[in-house]
Each structure stands twice: as structure tokens, then as C-alpha cells.
Write a structure and sequence with these properties.
It contains 16 helices and 8 strands. By secondary structure, the protein is α+β, with helices and mostly antiparallel strands. The chain has 4 domains: about 50 residues, no CATH class; about 80 residues, no CATH class; about 160 residues, no CATH class; about 110 residues, no CATH class.
Length: about 450
């Protein structure tokens, strides 16, 4: 629940916003508006029926005070399309502020006054084709609350498993996974744009890979043209972000708290080279341009529209069947594919790295479906998750070996030996972990 007072040319209005839903930047929530004589809020003017029975309105009124203010210039357009849909398009430029800090506002907001909600996505896509924009699921109020807390927006890591009820339908499970991936994508792309933190970029790519895996897993059941096209578009889009894996490896090598810090951080020449290589990758691939690209906005808008329109209902059967009917088969199939990629025999670094994509896809399937099963999932997933981290460390060591072979650092010989020893030690640990993983009992 949020409360605001809006003042324009000495005309004041208070708005109470109730809890609603936000999917892909589309906000749907009830709100109540009342005119005010001054800019001072008075919640006693709202209808008593909107409050809980135990709500002491007078006590709350006396305790109210402003947390933050927004000051912006708004340009408003009222437009109609050929289908009779009526929109309000506003451009807001200004800032949200507390007495200690401020955050700029540069937003385009679309509101459907009358017509079909799907028309909003069509209009948003038109704007995205002509302007460098990104879809944002954070409101002005969200930035205000962040300022009040005194904490900058932080990257978000993915949850351990996706929350899902055991009797969820296939459609419900799909929509939950898509909404989670989209929210995770939009949050972390916002954090990267505002802070340039590489962890946010890594999490953004993880969420896009999750979204692709959601599409891949459910497409055979929820077959429709729209989902097939999105699956294809997302594969192409991810190709623009493959370089981020090297950025992630460099982060491992340069981290002061990482597994390699004791030896590598004291080598200033290597640290300088890695910093330059990282900056070169960022300059060459321009992640901010990718975030503001037409392709990025289009995929996010089409994905949100997919959840709104549910086109699979017109062509697919079984979307309302319990997802549990599919989960056993999907998890077993992924498990068998993983066993083929990682057989019960000694593996070296190249074999592990070649199996990385398959392990990631299998773990993402587990992320989506493990919430259906309470018992045994932690014991089964934990060693495989440890192996995934080990593969990331192997990637970093493989990159270091490549760099050392390409450059002529003073202590190159010593570093090459250290890299080899570290790789062998890591492989020994991974082999023990894999043995535990292979002998764990499946939870589905």
C-alpha cells in the first residue's frame, strides 16, 4: 500500500495505491484518488470501506509524514489508435529526493484509459523501435524508498528454487517461471545501468538464460507461434552476451576475496592486464547499448504480452494439467542427458568445460521444478551446484592459462606452474564432489 500527494499548479490530489501485480513492466493495481484543498495528506477523506477492520485511521493519520518527494516536469499526450484504444502517454523529467540524496527521473509512462490491455504492448513496441529505452519494473516510489533506506540498488541473486505449489497447473508453473526470470532481468539491468556493477551484469545474463530454458522446457507442451518466435529471438539475443562469461572469469581472477586472491592479487602486472582486458571487453561490446537496444525491449515486451494473452490456449492441449505430470519426465530426461555428458569415469578440465552448458540447463530445470518436491532436493542439488561453481573456477583458470601463453609477464613460468597446480587441485575436489553427486538419490 502506498500513499502520495500530487500537486500541480496549486491543485492537489491524494492517491492511495493498493497491492497489485507487476509483470514485465506492466503494473495492474487498484488505486483511489481524492482532491485536497492543500498539499497536506488526509486519509480520513477516503471511504472507510477500503480499510481493514482493525485500522485505526485517526492514529495513523496523526503519525503520517513525508518520506520522500518527487519533483518533475510532465508532458502529457492523449492518443487513440485505429482500434479505438485510448492511451495517455507521459514524459517525466525531474528527480525523486530526500533531505540527503536524490535520484533522477527520466521516464515514459503509458496508461490505458480505455480499450484492450494488449494494445499497451503494441504502443510500447512502437516507442521502443524509435527511442533508446529499457523496460523498467521499478516505480518512482521504489527509488524513493531506496533513498530513504540510504542503500543503493543492489544486484539480486537467483533464489535457491522457484516457489511453486504442488498442485500448480502447467500454465501456472510456466507463468511463474517466466515472471520470475523477467523480474530478475529487469531489476539487474537497472542496477547495472545505475551502478555499473559487474555482478548485476552477470545476474542479468543468468536471468536471460533462465528465461530461455523456461521457453525450451515448456515449448513442447505450450506450443504456439508466439512462444516459438520468442524462443528463437532469445537465442539470437543471448549470442550478443556470450562475452560476459569472460568478464565473469576475470572477476574471479581479480577478486580480493576469491579462491585465487592469495597468489594473484600480489601480481600487479597481471592485475593491470586483467583490468585492461576487462575494460576492453566492456568498451567493445557496450552492455549499456545492449540493454537499451530495440531487441532487448522487444523481447521483454513480447514476453510480458505472452503472459497477458496466453496464446497457447488456442492451439495447445493440457496446459491446465498438473505440471507434476510433466515434472518427473523432464527431470529424469535432464538427469540422463547429464549422465551421458559426465559419465562415471575420470574427467579432465576439457571434459568438465564441455559439459558446463548441459549442467547449467539441468540445474535450471531443477530450479523451476524442485519446488514441487520437499524431501531430498537439497541433498541432490547441493553437489551439482558445487560442481557448477567449480566449472566457473575452471573457466577462470583456463582463461589465465591462455593469457599467460599470449603475454610475456615477468613471472610467467611461475604463474603457469601455479595455474597448473591449482587446476589439478580443483579437479581433485570436483571429482570427489561428482562422485557424491552421482550417488545421490533423485528427489522426484
Amino acid at each position: 500500500m502506498g500513499l502520495r500527494v500530487r500537486s500541480t499548479n496549486d491543485v492537489h490530489e491524494q492517491t492511495l495505491k493498493m497491492k497489485g501485480t507487476t509483470v514485465g513492466g506492466l503494473h495492474q493495481r487498484p488505486e483511489f484518488n481524492l482532491p485536497l484543498a492543500t498539499a497536506n495528506v488526509d486519509i480520513r477523506l477516503f471511504d472507510n470501506e477500503i480499510w481493514p477492520v482493525t485500522f485505526d485511521i485517526n492514529e495513523i493519520q496523526n503519525s503520517l509524514g513525508p518520506l520522500f518527494t518527487t519533483h518533475f516536469h510532465r508532458t502529457t499526450y492523449r492518443i487513440n489508435d485505429a482500434e479505438g484504444n485510448d492511451f495517455e502517454v507521459v514524459f517525466d523529467v525531474g528527480e525523486v529526493a530526500t533531505d540527503k540524496d536524490q535520484h533522477p527521473i527520466n521516464e515514459i509512462e503509458l496508461e490505458l484509459i480505455k480499450g484492450k490491455p494488449n494494445a499497451l504492448f503494441s504502443l510500447a513496441n512502437i516507442i521502443a523501435q524509435h527511442c533508446d529505452v529499457r523496460v523498467n519494473n521499478l516505480t518512482k516510489a521504489a527509488y524513493g524508498y531506496a533513498l530513504v533506506s540510504g542503500k543503493a540498488l543492489q544486484p539480486k541473486k537467483m533464489a535457491y528454487v522457484l516457489p511453486i505449489v504442488r498442485n500448480a497447473s502447467t500454465e501456472q508453473a510456466f507463468e511463474s517461471a517466466v515472471a520470475y526470470a523477467l523480474q530478475h532481468w529487469q531489476h539487474n539491468q537497472t542496477v547495472y545501468v545505475e551502478t555499473y556493477r559487474l555482478q548485476a551484469l552477470t545476474e542479468m545474463v543468468r536471468s536471460i538464460r533462465l528465461l530461455l530454458q523456461v521457453f525450451s522446457l515448456y515449448l513442447p507442451v505450450l506450443q504456439c507461434k508466439e512462444l516459438l518466435e520468442l524462443h528463437r529471438d532469445l537465442i539470437k539475443f543471448l549470442q550478443k552476451l556470450q562475452w560476459q562469461d569472460e568478464i565473469h572469469a576475470i572477476r574471479y581472477l581479480r577478486s580480493r576475496k576469491g579462491p585465487f586472491s592469495k597468489r594473484l592479487n600480489k601480481d600487479s602486472a597481471l592485475m593491470s592486464y586483467l583490468q585492461g582486458r576487462k575494460e576492453g571487453l566492456l568498451n567493445a561490446h557496450a552492455p549499456q547499448d545492449i540493454i537499451f537496444s530495440k531487441q532487448s525491449a522487444s523481447i521483454q515486451l513480447k514476453t510480458a504480452a505472452l503472459l497477458l494473452n496466453r496464446p497457447w490456449r488456442e492451439s495447445a492441449h493440457g496446459f491446465d494439467a498438473p505440471v507434476l505430470e510433466h515434472a518427473h519426465g523432464w527431470l529424469s530426461q535432464g538427469w540422463q542427458t547429464l549422465l551421458q555428458a559426465m559419465p562415471n569415469k575420470t574427467m579432465q578440465a576439457p571434459q568438465y568445460l564441455s559439459a558446463q552448458v548441459i549442467l547449467r540447463q539441468t540445474l535450471l530445470n531443477g530450479f523451476m521444478l524442485a519446488g514441487l518436491f520437499d524431501e531430498g532436493r537439497e541433498g541432490f542439488r547441493a553437489p551439482w551446484l558445487d560442481l557448477a561453481i567449480g566449472m566457473e573456477e575452471l573457466n577462470a583458470l583456463a582463461l589465465l592459462q591462455q593469457i599467460l601463453q599470449e603475454t610475456d609477464l615477468d613471472d610467467k613460468t611461475d604463474l603457469l606452474k601455479w595455474t597448473s597446480d591449482k587446476t589439478n587441485a580443483l579437479l581433485n575436489v570436483m571429482e570427489m564432489t561428482r562422485n557424491v553427486a552421482l550417488n545421490a538419490e533423485v528427489y522426484w
